[in-house]
Automatic annotation (TrEMBL):
Organism (species): Salvelinus namaycush
Highest taxon listed in the record's lineage: Eukaryota
Keyword terms, alphabetized: Cytoplasm, Phosphoprotein
Sequence ranges assigned to domain Far11/STRP C-terminal in this UniProt record: 438-796
Residue ranges, compositional bias (Acidic residues): 355-369
Biased composition (Basic and acidic residues): 333-354
Family: Belongs to the STRIP family.
Domain Far11/STRP N-terminal: 42-340
Lineage, opening ranks: Eukaryota, Metazoa, Chordata, Craniata, Vertebrata
Matching InterPro entries: Far11/STRP (IPR040185), Far11/STRP_C (IPR021819), Far11/STRP_N (IPR012486)
Protein name: Striatin-interacting protein 1 homolog isoform X1
Length: 816
């Protein structure tokens, strides 16, 4: 698929709609939205960003299609065990006490020594967690019994037993060594691990789903489980730390058989459940601002982003050539240049206008956004008018979506430059004295202060500076032992290794990665023992492998983003520590490499076979698969997980580069502007917003010619990205903070601050000796036992002769 040619089939329809005689610019129809950059050539993607996809989709991605035969194997293991104790009834016909008794029997079976028997019992428990699907007639019924069975299993203590078994399997050196020696690892090498991880994932994923019909007991169970999952109860560390350990062990090559997709999915869902998603993050932010007596947030960012409209995609080279040829043939050129929003507000929506009068006067040098060709030069046949009910018209809000923000540092810089310009002196950090400054400067300062925004991070940095300056009089720091703090303490000793491991797997799963001999094999839990022999089997495996990689990218991007956001709220230096190690591990070029592909092809990829997805495949009769049905894929306009991954990676890139000039320069050095501009082809408002943010921070370094030839992109940045009132991002003025020789010093200073923070708060063994209490009592000092080395004891007489007897002592001076 050509990058510039996406949505070609939709262009004719949009052009035809634009030619309707009784349709004016003022009339906007849903899903046929228009920005101030001309008509859209492809429809907006109806994508709603959330913490996760639909529950059924999150269940289905756990299983590879090559695991399909194991559903019946799980059922067989359950029924063999079940029929020994209950011969005449189905599972769904028993009462609660019988259900509980059988769950307890299965739990006891997990403690047997024989591995084969233990695996059969684990498969029976997995069948319960999968909703005892053989006795269900619909997907809804399967999901109902899943919830019931999983809460039952949790109640009898299954999860703790599973964690112990998982620990045992992770430490199984025999399995690791045999996997290392194998030339090709397949699904069979990770059977035990996969069964355990499947049960644990289904339990975490199901319990975190809140339902209004849940009983009070279930709600209490959910909260207890959430607390336990985030606490160091399992093996004296949170479950997430154990899973991180599995990731690093896999990447080091010591355990190549680990089913990495399942580990990463369980890690993501554990972090999401224990720390909270994006709605909870917003609530924590509001609560923390109240506790610090800061003004409330100017707006709800989630709501603002959801209400945004997507901009038109960039034009391809062929479109630009065609556009220039058509412009050359024009006899008349419109003299009016009117914003579409103004047209909507001022013109009569029911008036039939001449299309010539409404045409945008597009910039000749612009190659950024699609433009509408001259109406009279279209050769398409005009369709009959399509009546639209008045209720379908969309009202566009006036004004910009975001309230502007100003930092204290910006006000200080503005005042300093004003004072040195008008008076010739400076006052340091004084932002109140305006004596001798002209009245317009007074008004500017008043406006800046009106929009001043103090972040939680600024308060945390100021408090940390105070602790460092006054370690004795500063008092004890009150650290809230929340789930985020417990997780940070757990991963702190090995955090750099964890970040490198996640990025290694992300690189291996990226669609732009070439197969290299030294890259890690992430397909251990998708490749069957016997490779496919027919074309159909090969196609099915190809879809499975691509889907497998997409799910891994989705899980890693969500893990990194959640951790960055939660650490930033908990303490900014925790966030900076993780972010700096991501930068050191080449996260910025890795994400840019990920986007250096045909991003529209990635987002519209159809790497799924819906009839093989769980729970559909266990309830319905499976139709015969053909090569045509596999090629056709599903009917969705886009792939939810791929668009979700792209937005997450863009948000991570924003987090890493915001207010960091050295990292912004990395974006410039790696030539990210054309890569990011291609990503604007995706007509989804949230994704475009984060692309435009990344373009905005580097605009001043891209040169005047780039800005001149990308004016529509500049306009989109102005419309959609938050304004900083005295930020000269669009003009390329020299920034005092952006001197290249300061870049290394900036990172080094940040690293020193992070190390001081971690040492002060978490390193109890390396306290500063200057601040330790001194023992002034002569008896206790002389009474302390001092361990002397052996060679000293052997040569004690010699030491006495040399250091004591042979040296003259002036007793008078000593006694005085």
């Amino acid at each position: 698929m050509d990058v510039g040619g996406n949505g070609g089939g939709l262009i004719v329809n949009n052009k035809q709609r634009a030619m309707l005689p009784n349709k004016s610019r003022g009339e906007f129809v849903r899903n046929q939205r228009k920005d101030s950059e001309g008509f859209s050539e492809s429809p907006d993607l109806e994508f709603e960003y959330a913490d996760t996809d639909k529950w059924s989709a999150e269940l289905s991605v756990l299983y590879s299609y090559t695991e399909g035969p194991e559903f019946l194997l799980n059922r067989k293991c359950f029924e063999e065990e079940f029929r020994i104790h209950v011969s005449d009834k189905k599972w769904t016909e028993l009462d609660v006490s019988q259900h509980r008794a059988h769950a307890m029997r299965l739990l006891d079976g997990l403690e047997v020594i024989t591995r084969e028997k233990r695996l059969k019992v684990a498969r029976a428990i997995l069948y319960m967690a999968q909703g005892t699907f053989a006795e269900c007639s619909s997907e809804a019924e399967v999901q109902h019994w899943m919830r019931y069975n999983i809460f039952l299993l949790l109640d009898v203590g299954t999860f703790t037993a599973l964690v112990e078994l998982l620990n045992m399997e992770v430490d199984n050196s025999a399995a690791c060594s045999s996997a290392v020696r194998k030339p090709a690892i397949s699904l069979a090498d990770s059977t035990d691990l996969r069964v355990l991880l499947n049960i644990m994932y289904l339990m975490v994923e199901t319990i975190q789903q809140e339902d209004t019909a849940d009983s009070p007991e279930w709600r209490a169970t959910r909260e207890t489980f959430k607390t336990e999952l985030g606490s160091p109860l399992y093996n004296n560390e949170p479950i997430s730390v154990m899973l991180f350990g599995m990731v690093t062990k896999f990447c080091s090559g010591h355990a190549p058989h680990f089913p990495m997709k399942k580990v990463l999915l369980l890690l993501w869902k554990s972090i999401l459940f224990t720390l909270g998603g994006f709605e909870q993050l917003q609530n924590i932010k509001v609560r923390k601002r109240e506790q610090l007596c800061l003004p409330p947030l100017p707006e709800d960012s989630i709501r603002v982003i959801r209400s945004m409209r997507a901009a038109s995609p960039p034009a391809s080279a062929s479109d630009l050539i065609e556009q220039q040829q058509k412009r050359a043939r024009r006899e008349h050129k419109s003299l009016t240049k009117q914003d579409n929003l103004d047209a909507f507000n001022e013109k009569d929506p029911y008036k039939s206008d001449d299309p010539r009068e409404d045409e945008d006067d597009n910039d000749d040098n612009d190659n950024s956004m699609e433009v509408e060709p001259f109406p009279m030069e279209r050769d398409e046949v005009m369709p009959p008018p399509i009546p639209h009910p008045p209720s379908e018209r969309v009202n566009f809000p006036k004004g910009l979506p975001w309230a502007p923000k100003v930092r204290e540092k910006d006000i200080e810089h503005f005042l300093e430059s004003s004072r040195s310009k008008f008076i010739g002196y400076t006052l340091g950090n004084d932002t109140d004295t305006v004596v001798g400054l002209p009245r317009p400067i007074h008004e500017s300062i008043r406006t800046l202060k009106q929009h001043k925004y103090i972040s939680i991070a600024e308060i945390q940095i100021a408090k940390e500076d105070e602790f460092q300056k006054t370690p004795l009089s500063g008092g004890e720091e009150d650290v809230e032992m929340c789930s985020t703090e417990l997780l940070y303490q757990g991963i702190l000793p090995s955090l750099p290794q964890y970040m490198i491991a996640l990025l290694k797997i992300l690189l291996a799963a990226a669609p732009t990665s070439k197969a290299k001999t030294d890259s890690i094999n992430i397909l251990a839990d998708v490749l069957p023992e016997e490779m496919p022999t027919t074309v159909l089997q090969s196609m099915k495996l190809g879809v499975d492998v691509n889907r497998h990689k997409e799910v891994i990218v989705k899980a890693i991007s969500a893990i990194l983003l959640l951790l960055l956001k939660h650490f930033k709220l908990n303490h900014v230096y925790q966030f900076e520590y993780m972010a700096q190690h991501l930068v050191f591990a080449n996260c910025i070029p890795l994400i840019l490499k990920f986007f250096n592909q045909n991003i529209m092809s990635y987002i519209t990829a159809k790497n799924s076979i819906s009839v093989l997805d769980f729970p559909y495949c266990v309830v319905h009769e499976l139709p015969e698969l053909t090569a045509e049905s596999l090629e056709a894929g599903d009917i969705n306009q886009f792939c939810w997980r791929n668009l979700f991954s792209c937005i997450n990676l863009l948000r991570i890139l924003n987090k890493l580069t915001k207010w960091k000039h050295s990292r912004t320069m990395m974006l410039v050095v790696f030539k990210s502007a054309p890569i990011l501009k291609r990503a604007l082809k995706v007509k989804q408002a949230m994704m475009q917003l984060y692309v435009l943010k990344l373009l905005k921070v580097q605009t001043k370094y891209l040169g005047r010619q780039w800005r001149k030839s990308n004016m529509k992109t500049m306009s989109a940045i102005y419309q959609k990205v938050r304004h900083r009132l005295n930020d000269d991002w669009a003009y390329g003025n020299a920034d005092l903070d952006a001197r290249p020789w300061d870049f290394q010093a900036e990172e080094c200073a940040l690293r020193a601050n992070i190390e001081r923070f971690n040492s002060r708060r978490y390193d109890n063994n390396q306290s500063n000796p200057d601040f330790l209490p001194v023992d002034n009592c002569l008896q206790s000092v002389l009474g302390q036992r001092v361990d002397l080395p052996e060679d000293f004891q052997m040569n004690y007489d010699l030491w006495l002769e040399r250091e004591v007897f042979s040296k003259p002592i002036s007793w008078e001076e000593l006694l005085q």
